[in-house]
Amino acid sequence: MNIILLGPPGAGKGTQARKLVDERNMIQLSTGDMLREAKTSGTEMGNKVAAVMERGELVTDEIVIGLIEEKLQGDHAGGFIFDGFPRTLAQADALADLLKSHGTQLDTVIAMEVNDDALVDRITARSTCGNCGEVYNDHTKPQPADGKCSNCGASDFKRRADDNEASLRTRLMEYYKKTSPLIGYYHAKGQLQWVAGLGEIDEVAGAISAVLDA
Ligand code: AMP
Questions:
Q1: Most CB within 10 Å of its CB: which of 51, 71, 181, 213?
Q2: Sheet of 3-6, strand order
Q3: Which of 19, 87, 122, 178 is catalytic?
């Protein structure tokens, strides 16, 4: 099964994707993670996109489609979770073509519904474990007092360079201008399912599971 998690920054796409990986043997393809990795390892492409990402703008379709194309090689029986991709109509068309060329297709698009106030609050309070990617929130899930990640025990917490209010404003505008049209696109294809994204992590996961099992 191949699915897209669609929603604005801070909707909880990454957190829910990680749960699906654990529970359903699916593979998470996060273009944001891939781009951050390219940035950290100092590749030419990583250096090129660093400033664009920090401003909160979208990097080019060509770059992200290329990243996804690479990851679709090979046999992945559990299917893919596309997290943060596609973000434009051109990316959505490219994804359909790529899946078709691999003899598969998209099954469901989960649109995660959240309000903007909650997004600002979540993102400015967000940190992650640099080792395993576990997500923390200063208010609802603070970093453990012993300084060790509750998932993997590492002591390497990170805050994203673009998790600040100025960049978030741009990221939200990019979402509404370029990504939210995908809601209509997938609705028209009969593939869109809404899930309330504001509840507790397990509650949202339950709602997503119910959609996938229906
Ligand atoms: P994310 O981790 O999904 O919030 O992505 C972080 C940043 O990476 C975004 O603000 C964009 O600058 C860039 N990015 C990630 N995925 C895409 C995409 N599919 N298309 C364009 N830019 C992307």
A1: 71
A2: 27-30, 80-83, 3-6, 108-113, 192-196
A3: 87
Residue 133 beta carbon below 6 angstroms from any ligand 1 atom: no
DSSP string covering 29-71: EEHHHHHHHHHHTT-HHHHHHHHHHHHTPPPPHHHHHHHHHHH
Q: Which residues contact 68 (CB under 8 A, 6 or more apart)?
A: 29, 31, 82, 85, 94, 95, 98
pLDDT, tens digit (0-9, with 9 covering 90-100), for 7-54: 999 999 999 999 999 999 899 999 999 999 999 898 999 999 999 999
Q: List, for residues 89-126, the tens digit of each pLDDT value.
A: 999 999 999 999 999 999 999 999 998 888 888 889 99
Q: Residue 178 — very low, low, confident or very high, per pLDDT cuts 50/70/90?
A: very high
Q: How many CA atoms lie within 13 A of 57 on its CB side?
A: 9
Question: Does the beta carbon of 109 sit less than 6 angstroms from any atom of ligand 1?
Answer: no
171 given a catalytic annotation = yes
Contact residues for 109 (Cβ-Cβ < 8 A; gap 6+): 3, 4, 6, 182, 186, 191, 192, 193
For the entire predicted model, the pTM comes to 0.92
Which of 53, 88, 91, 169 gets mutated to test ligand 1 (max ligand atoms within 8 A of its CB)? 53
Does the active-site annotation cover 122? no
In short, whether 58's Cβ falls inside 6 Å of ligand 1 is yes
What is 190-201 written as a DSSP string?
T-EEEEE-SS-H
Residue 27, beta-bridge partner list: 80
